[in-house]
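Technical annex, item 7. During the second reporting period the consortium partners agreed on a shared format for inverse folding records so that results from different sites could be compared directly. Each record opens with the tokenized structure and is followed by the designed sequence. A conforming record, contributed by the partner at site C, is shown below for reference.
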């Protein structure tokens, strides 16, 4: 199509999850409550890990980063979805749409790599316990977390470099609650089937590579604990269960969206809601309800609070922790 005859699309229309007003009001209340729980739950985990000296270990350092990432992953799409439930016209500017694509893939890509780092941490702790403190030093953990952010950024920028150059001149309706690459690519004024496969493959390679690395890590862990005593194996498996659960919950929807797309609208919407809203909601519960040290930290915090010492001393402890 001749680019000179094309008009520039300044905004897109998000069709959302449904069209019924009554259902949208109900969903508004549900997702508002869910989002508040996500923010508060993940914030509590981050604050506990920062302020409680018993949790100053590589595993909890990585967990704090995961909670931080989950909170921001949900914040990229959920507030917009919540406000759109009460709007008749659900539009998003072209720039806003591009920002959603950039940050969703930046944060999600970083989280995939971070989950691999967490699996590596468990592998070292269980398979090489005598060398754990030297291998997983604070400097090493910081470097691995930084590497996860860099990997997510590179992945997102590589996607955006292609998306922003596409010609958008006609259709502007996106049948979802946020902008995602497969849906936006289909609106381009060009034959986009090959490009859609290429873009999905780019995301799929990241997801599959991380997933394979996770499988390798947990395979080594399972083989190691099998050779140990039942007590050691039980404790090791208990430690890894939460990680494995999060991996399945996060990678499952991503694989069906980008690696093996089903192209069924309601399924795609459900999977998108799952990895952007449900997974960040479940992570705090999975890691706190199954983790004895996190539950003990919460009890210590409540006891600290009940003595009337928390207002000033908590802030002092929080600041001192960051300045160490």
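Designed sequence (site C submission):
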């Amino acid at each position: 199509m001749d680019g000179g005859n094309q008009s520039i699309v300044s905004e897109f229309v998000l069709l959302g999850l449904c069209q019924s007003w009554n259902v949208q009001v109900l969903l508004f209340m549900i997702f508002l409550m869910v989002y508040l729980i996500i923010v508060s739950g993940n914030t509590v985990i981050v604050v506990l890990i920062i302020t409680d000296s018993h949790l100053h270990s590589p595993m909890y350092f990585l967990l704090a980063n995961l909670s931080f990432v989950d909170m921001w992953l949900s914040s990229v799409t959920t507030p917009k979805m919540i406000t759109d439930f009460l709007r008749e016209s659900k539009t998003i500017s072209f720039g806003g749409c591009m920002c959603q694509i950039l940050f969703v893939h930046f944060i999600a890509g970083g989280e995939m790599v971070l989950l691999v780092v967490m699996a590596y941490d468990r592998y070292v702790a269980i398979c090489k316990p005598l060398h754990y403190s030297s291998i997983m030093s604070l400097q090493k953990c910081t470097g691995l977390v930084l590497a996860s952010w860099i990997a997510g950024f590179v992945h997102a920028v590589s996607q955006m470099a292609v998306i922003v150059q596409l010609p958008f001149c006609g259709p502007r309706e996106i049948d979802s609650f946020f902008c995602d690459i497969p849906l936006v690519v289909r609106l381009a004024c060009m034959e986009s089937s090959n490009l859609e496969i290429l873009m999905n493959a780019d995301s799929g390679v990241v997801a599959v590579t991380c997933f394979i690395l996770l499988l390798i890590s947990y395979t080594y862990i399972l083989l190691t604990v099998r050779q140990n005593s039942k007590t050691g194996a039980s404790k090791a498996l208990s430690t890894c269960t939460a990680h494995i659960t999060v991996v399945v919950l996060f990678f499952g929807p991503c694989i069906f969206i980008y690696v093996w797309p089903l192209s069924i609208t309601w399924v795609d919407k459900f999977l998108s809601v799952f990895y952007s809203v449900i997974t960040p909601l479940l992570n705090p519960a999975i890691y706190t309800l199954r983790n004895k040290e996190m539950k003990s930290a919460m009890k210590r915090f409540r006891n600290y609070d009940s003595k009337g010492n928390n207002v000033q001393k908590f802030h002092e402890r929080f600041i001192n922790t960051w300045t160490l």
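The chain has a mean pLDDT of 82. Residues 35 and 79 are 8 Å apart (CA to CA). All partners now use this format for quarterly exchanges.
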